[in-house]
């Protein structure tokens, strides 16, 4: 997903500087290289290929899998459906947004609107960048449990462990279900990675809901450790309580239930004790004004219409992990299996060309 730690605690500053240096050199090559498909089409007299844009379209190659998956889905549709060529330039949030603002990058499929750098909002307000609206609503989840904890799983011989568990208010009565092996008498809550902003938020939540009295606040040191704790418990049929976010391969693999919390409000989140759900994480698509001016209206409308549920994205991230597949292969699998979704973004003619390319 997005650089979950970087976007909220600033830990990606060193990587950002390296990416800026890398970006400057690579963009010269990428933007000078003609797009083979468009070039071939023009040699055949088809000046309409990619609306006459005779170079590769450049995507922001943000360094997490969901962004790369979106790039490939959109890129493959632009390639097969509109005759465009595309590439992406790898990097982290800051240099990618800088490239978009400068016009070095044409398309960014994942602008995390609430945490985007100020320069993005300034460029959008000035009209240098066009925000095309929602790509997906991502999820920040503070308290999740495997579905079998509540409902059981007859196929696996698992009986319900906490059949009346619905909300955070119910957790104290089920603390023993999530027993901490290192502190008997208390349950264990698997918090976000230590040092990330989500860990600090969950600390507030634990205190606000009075859960510190009943649960240890266990903070994994890495994302891999947090994922392993959930995966290990799920595979063994053991109870697990903790934090996770989406889209991720984890939530695309394991059937989890989000426990109810009071509804989000600005007063609760900004001025209060954060005893409510996380604010919505809005992820938008953005393009440069130069690209919007050069592209056809139909190309822009496709990018404006592009929208996926984050749970669908999680499922394809799980596909990538389970099949050791790259984002390009996962995107092709998406196009092959989810025609009911993506054909709604484009005209019948474009859809037919994309489907022909899959065959």
Question: Would you write up a description of this structure?
Answer:
Mean pLDDT is 87; it is low at 1-45. Strands 3, 4, 7, 8 and 9 form a 5-stranded antiparallel sheet that branches. This protein starts with 5 loop residues before the first helix and ends with a helix. It is globular, with a radius of gyration of 23 Å. It is built from 17 helices and 9 strands. The protein is α/β, with parallel strands linked by helices and 359 residues long. The longest helix has 20 residues, at 13-32.
Q: Please provide the count of β strands.
A: 9
Mean pLDDT: 87
Radius of gyration: 23 Å
What's the tally of helices? 17
Q: Based on helices, strands and strand pairing, what is the structural class?
A: alpha/beta
Shape: globular
The share of residues in helices is: 40-55%
Proportion of strand residues = 15-25%
The span between the termini is 30 Å
Secondary-structure element series: HHHEHEHEHEHEHEHEHEHEHHHHHH
For the sheet with most strands, the description reads: 5 strands, antiparallel
Uncertain spans, ≥5 residues at pLDDT below 50?
A: 1-45
Features of the shown structure:
359 residues, alpha/beta, five-stranded antiparallel β-sheet, 17 helices, 17% strand, disordered N terminus
